[in-house]
Amino acid sequence: TLKLSYNPLDPRLKLCFAYCALFPKGWRFQSDELIHIFIALGYVKKYKNQSLMDAGEECLLSFVKRGLFNNLSLSSRERTLWMHDLIHDLAVSVAGCKLKMVESKEDELDDRVRHVSLSSKVDICLESLSKMRHLRSLLVMGPRRRSTCPPTSR
């Protein structure tokens, strides 16, 4: 099953992977942006003389090696990654109730939620977010970098 790629991950890598459930299916991840998020959340730990960015890059490379992410571009300046819909479903499954992607007004926010992503199309009252005692991060998602189908190989 798909969990065979997930189960042996280090606990910090599991947190990083689960966090990806906050992004919509088909999202094109910019590696540097994702690494900065992981660093800000305290999910990346550096070893010896390694920088946090290098440690974050190792995290993403681990995901690619395990088939949890696919490379869309290998530019030396900026790498773009993509997650298959089935892998995204796994991320949602392992994320549990601590992460929530809000795509419509009807989506309810549980007090236990720690991380929320909002579609830019959702009009939500910030007062309801302020009542969430455990909220640690909020992402507002726009339409950019979203694709409805898997990328084609060249």
Automatic annotation (TrEMBL):
Coiled coil: none annotated. It comes from the Eukaryota. Residues 22-91 form the Disease resistance protein winged helix domain. InterPro entries: Disease_R_plants (IPR044974), WH-like_DNA-bd_sf (IPR036388), WHD_DRP (IPR058922). GO terms for biological process: defense response to other organism. PANTHER family: DISEASE RESISTANCE PROTEIN RP, OS11G0492300 PROTEIN. This is Disease resistance protein winged helix domain-containing protein. The lineage of its organism: Eukaryota, Viridiplantae, Streptophyta, Embryophyta, Tracheophyta.
